[in-house]
């Protein structure tokens, strides 16, 4: 891998790169090496407000632009990402430290989301109701609202951009995006692409900083709504603030996802999906498998197979094509995950695979690595079974039957995703119907919906109104205007009808 140039992150305001002055900068690290590769501004309130003003002014003309021209910009954005796929993926692999293969997959998924958003002309069509009364018709028209702000987490800098921005601007809004200070490089690349495709100034602004940035949005009269992907405590604070300010909110929070294995599990299919679900992105995603629940008939065999497969997962630099799992995002995250491992041991769960201090090449010794970690004999009351660890830590739990699994899923505070592995149609339909989660999967380890379908959980995993993607994305970023129209002939039409026999200006198409 070539040496990473030290980067001073800039804000993107009104189509210009602006270097923030007079504020604190925080270091940006490459988690694979622990090396400082840049610094990120904690931008001022004035900068955030300047972005609001820029987006508000841009909205006036952007919303009036024809739908076909807005779609043209989305098509251009999609093509620009296709043309720069590798550079965008590398930016994610460097500061977010997602393995390069997964970073490429994330970029490809965003391209697919933009392609789905290009169906807005069909999804945004309104409704009509004729014949409400004599000469009275009704009409529902979907219209944009104004300026939206979005806050992204560190773990999916590209995907969250895709969830929010294409739909928001596609229907006619403008957008202010705050990337995570831990993974800002992707949006630095995207800002250049916005200018390359000629996107009008102010339609998308990028502001870096801490929670003070969205703090300027909640009561601002020029803001219409706020979006977040982050932790549940943060989502709840933002929901309260949006409520006070009368803003729309789309807030995705934390998760604790179950993988349920029944007695007829297909082992090869399960293990392949287990590895991807629990160790992909080093367990740092909202749909990562965290608890594996197995019925007694296969419990011991599942442990044996899971541990054997987990030991084969290679850990190392996110840019190394020969390894599977990269580091976690920071030294703080590594310490938090290791503390959860300690708590798991202290509370009586059995640590059968310890991922602390994995063997690493010399150039990664200072990186933030935690290897695959597996606990068995975990009960629902244990901390590691209840709290989101956000790392490659798996808790294996014995369940009596499918009803027991459904009860455990029902009783937890999160409701993001849950998957079952079975060939039994009864189990399949019962799980889909009764699993208390916003997204469910059958024989898949990551139940992320296709971009044409909504994405989002329930309970403490989702606050606000609609979910992201698909028709939900259209509904969130638009408001319904209802028109009641009475039609009547203009004055004089009745008289003309009475005199139609003497009116020689209207002639038959039949030869006279």
Automatic annotation (TrEMBL):
GO terms for biological process: L-valine catabolic process; thymine catabolic process. It holds the Pfam family Aldedh. It comes from Desulforhopalus singaporensis. One of its GO terms (molecular function) is methylmalonate-semialdehyde dehydrogenase (acylating, NAD) activity. SUPFAM superfamilies: ALDH-like. This is methylmalonate-semialdehyde dehydrogenase (CoA acylating). The keyword Hydrolase does not apply. It is an enzyme of class 1 (oxidoreductase). PROSITE patterns: ALDEHYDE_DEHYDR_CYS. Its EC number is 1.2.1.27. Residues 17-481 form the Aldehyde dehydrogenase domain. Keywords: NAD, Oxidoreductase.
């Amino acid at each position: 891998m070539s040496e990473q140039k030290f980067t001073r992150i800039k804000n993107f305001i009104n189509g210009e790169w602006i270097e923030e002055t007079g504020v604190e900068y925080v270091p940006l690290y490459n988690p694979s090496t622990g090396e400082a590769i840049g610094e990120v501004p904690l931008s001022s309130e004035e900068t955030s407000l300047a972005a609001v003003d820029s987006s508000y002014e841009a909205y006036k003309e952007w919303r009036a632009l024809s739908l076909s021209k807005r779609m043209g910009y989305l098509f251009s954005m999609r093509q620009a990402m296709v043309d720069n796929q590798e550079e965008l993926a590398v930016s994610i692999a460097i500061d977010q430290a997602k393995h390069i293969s997964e970073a490429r997959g994330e970029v490809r998924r965003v391209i697919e989301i933009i392609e789905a958003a290009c169906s807005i002309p069909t999804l945004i069509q309104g409704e009509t109701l004729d014949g409400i009364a004599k000469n009275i018709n009704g009409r529902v028209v979907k219209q944009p609202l104004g300026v939206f702000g979005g806050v992204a987490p560190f773990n999916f800098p590209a995907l969250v951009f895709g969830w929010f921005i294409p739909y928001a601007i596609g229907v006619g809004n403008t957008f202010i995006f705050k990337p995570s200070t831990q993974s800002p490089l992707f949006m630095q690349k995207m800002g250049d692409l916005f200018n390359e495709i000629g996107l009008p100034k102010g339609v998308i602004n990028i502001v870096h900083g801490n929670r003070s940035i969205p703090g300027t949005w909640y009561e601002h009269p020029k803001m219409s709504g706020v979006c977040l992907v982050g932790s549940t405590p943060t989502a709840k604070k933002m929901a309260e603030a949006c409520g006070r300010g009368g803003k729309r909110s789309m807030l995705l929070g934390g998760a604790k996802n179950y993988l349920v294995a029944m007695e007829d599990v297909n082992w090869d299919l399960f293990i392949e999906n287990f590895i991807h679900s629990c160790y992909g992105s080093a367990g740092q995603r909202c749909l990562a498998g965290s608890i594996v629940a197995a019925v007694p008939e296969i419990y011991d065999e599942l442990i044996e197979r899971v541990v054997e497969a987990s030991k084969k997962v290679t850990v190392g630099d996110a840019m190394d094509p020969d390894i599977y799992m990269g580091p976690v995002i920071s030294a703080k995250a590594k310490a938090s995950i290791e503390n959860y491992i300690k708590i798991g041991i202290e509370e009586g769960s059995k640590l059968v695979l310890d991922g602390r201090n994995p063997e690493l090449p010399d150039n990664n010794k200072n990186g933030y690595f935690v290897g695959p970690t597996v606990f068995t004999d975990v009960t629902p009351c244990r901390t590691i079974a209840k709290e989101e660890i956000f790392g490659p830590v798996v808790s294996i739990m014995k369940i009596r039957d499918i009803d027991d699994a459904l009860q455990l899923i029902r009783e937890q505070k999160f409701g993001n995703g849950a998957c079952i592995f079975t060939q039994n149609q009864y189990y399949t339909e019962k799980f889909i119907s009764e699993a208390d989660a916003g997204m469910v999967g059958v024989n898949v380890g990551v139940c992320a919906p296709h971009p044409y379908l909504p994405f989002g959980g329930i309970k403490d995993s989702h606050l606000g109104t609609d979910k992201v993607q698909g028709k939900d994305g259209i509904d969130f970023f638009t408001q319904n205007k209802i028109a009641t129209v009475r039609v009547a002939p203009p004055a004089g039409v009745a008289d003309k009808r009475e005199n139609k026999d003497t009116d020689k200006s209207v002639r038959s198409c039949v030869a006279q």
